[in-house]
Amino acid sequence: MRTFLLLLFIPVSLFAQSSNIYWGNAIPENWNGDWPNDLRTACEKSGFTHTATHNDIMDYLSELPRKSELVSTSTLFVSDRGLASQLLIMANPRISSAQEAKASGKPVIYLQGGIHPGEPEGKEALLMVIRDILFGEKKHLLDNLIILVNPNFNVDGNETRVITNGDLKLMGTRRNAAGYDVNRDALKLQTKNMQGAVSKLFAQWDPILIYDTHRMEETQHGYAIAHGGSNVPTAHAAPRDYVTYNIFPALVDIARKDYQIEVGMHCGLDDTWPPKVFSHDNSIWSTEGKFMVSGYGLRNRMAIITETPERASFEKAVYAQYAYTQALLTYCHTHGQEMKALCEKTDAEVVAQIKNHASSGQLTNFTSGKYVSDGALKIPAYRDTKKKFVPGSSVQVYDRPDTPEWVTVDLVTKPIGTHSAKVPNAYLLPESLKPIVDKLKMHGVQVSQLEKAVKVNGERYRVDRMEKRPMGFAKYPMTTLLGDFEQAKQQNYPAGTYLVSLEQPLANLIFYCLEPQVRDGLMGWQLMDDQLQALEQKGSPFYYPVFKVFGEVN
Question: N or C end of the chain: which has fewer CB within 10 A?
Answer without folding.
Answer: C
